[in-house]
Amino acid sequence: MSETKSPLPRQVADAYVDDLIALDPVTGTYLGVKESSTRLPDYSPAGQEALARLARATLARLDEAERQPGADSDVERRCGRLLRERLTAELAVHEADEHLRAVGNMHTPGHAVRDVFTVTPQQTEEDWAAIAERLRAVPGALAGYRESIRLGLDRKLFAAPRPTATYIEQLTEWTDTDGSGRGWFEDFAAAGPDALRAELDEAARAATAALAELRDWLRDVYAPAIEGAPDTVGRERYAHWSRYFNGTDLDLDEAYGYGWAEFHRLLGEMRREAEKILPGAGTPWVALAHLDEHGRHIEGVEEVREWLQGLMDQAVADLDGTHFELAERVRRVESRIAPPGGAAAPYYTAPSEDFSRPGRTWLPTMGQTRFPVYDLVSTWYHEGVPGHHLQLAQWAHVAENLSRYQATIGGVSANAEGWALYAERLMDELGYLKGPEERIGYLDAQMMRAVRVIVDIGMHLELEIPADSPFHPGERWTPELAQEFFRAHSSRPADFVESEVTRYLTIPGQAIGYKLGERAWLLGREKARERHGDAFDLKAWHMAALSQGSLGLDDLVDELARL
């Protein structure tokens, strides 16, 4: 009788994905698993603990797998590093009971329940029958979520008041999108087939009623109970979240200093570009305000969607074969307009595992119909090509050479956001930001990422503003000062800035990963260049780097330097 071989790290990781999908059908839908389309996760405390048990059991299996012959190969080692780091970070957040405070303007179970419908298959009557069943699951999913945050309330584990208020406003919009009493779910279900009309409408109304019930409870019970609680999380909680989003235990004071160094460097560059646009402007933001009125614009929502599609298509055509080698299915990416009622920032959704649903960029219009070009070009290099799309679609493309886990759910936020910011810089290095409008827009976006490091760390840790700061030197950060500082050093409108600061209060430690991740990618490239000397091949390095899956920042630099 032959012995059963013990699994290696990649097999352990892929078994974890299968087990996770069974517990979390939202993840299954994003991966393109059709069987997930009818269900929603259990967001109750019991459901959250089931996820934690799975993580602990997987780590125990990984311990055994890493002792097996062959576990020290490059592919197994990278997968094991990632799986151990990710599950350890996720468990630290869980064991700190952060799931009992999951209230804010993004990344809550309420957002997940709504957003998953936008990526649920909608092509056939069978698809819509699954959607109807998933709509019927909304009340139960939201009830479980409410059970979790009610337990947090009982234990005095409070969410931040400001993000809570914003979340209540979002839920109000989702339950009545246009003032007619018709909610987001009803609008969504209206696209379904006539044969299922009564079933879809009934399920959609019940889903909207569940949203309204959650909104009313948050407004009438939760918000009054947390009044006076801090909006910031403090150093200990911040350390858990920064590890979760960055994949390493950061020296937060060093990172804060780096943010300020980048702020001063970028400010000098922006001033030089501003002189080309509006001589004597005084500050770069006067020049940017001038561009808001007199710079190049795209008029119309559908027109801007088409323009962004063209920008990405051109980038694919130019970069494929020169700086990247792209498979045909990776070349496809779609530009979309984001559904109303979400955060103000653009975003990207990855393709399904089989590419039947392509990667998509999403532009929130926030009611606008006129869009300045300077604010779009580098942002779409970030969200689309060569940014998020090339990395995440390439992971899906090479999934068989990695593991399903590495190619999909094992992503580290700072790795992905760092690559996307590196992609913006790469396009600048390659000369794609040809005029001062495009270049000051890129620098403004870079400045926003430096400001994020400063204010996200600064306000949550209540750090002192340095003496050489042009803004309130010697004072300690508060959310109010963070918003004022952001507004003074950004071209973004006031509602965007307010949404951004609320975002940092909702998901502490995530926003710093853009700049810190970019630093890791640049350091890894430099180390690889030093290692190879004149033989360094940037195209080959890009493809090897994009084909190794995700890693936390310290592990990322180490692995990039080996390529």
Task: Describe the structure in brief.
Helix content is 62%, strand content 3%. The protein is built from 23 helices and 5 strands.
Q: What's the rounded overall pLDDT mean?
A: 95
In terms of quaternary structure, the protein is: single chain
Could you name the ranges where pLDDT drops below 50 across 5 or more consecutive residues? none
The assigned structural class equals mainly alpha
The main pleated sheet reads as: 3 strands, mixed
What number of structural domains do the residues give? 2
The outline comes out as globular
Ends: how far apart? 42 Å
Q: How much is the radius of gyration in Å? A: 23 Å
% residues in beta strands: under 5%
H/E element order: HHHHHHHHHHHHEHEEEEHHHHHHHHHH
Number of strands: 5
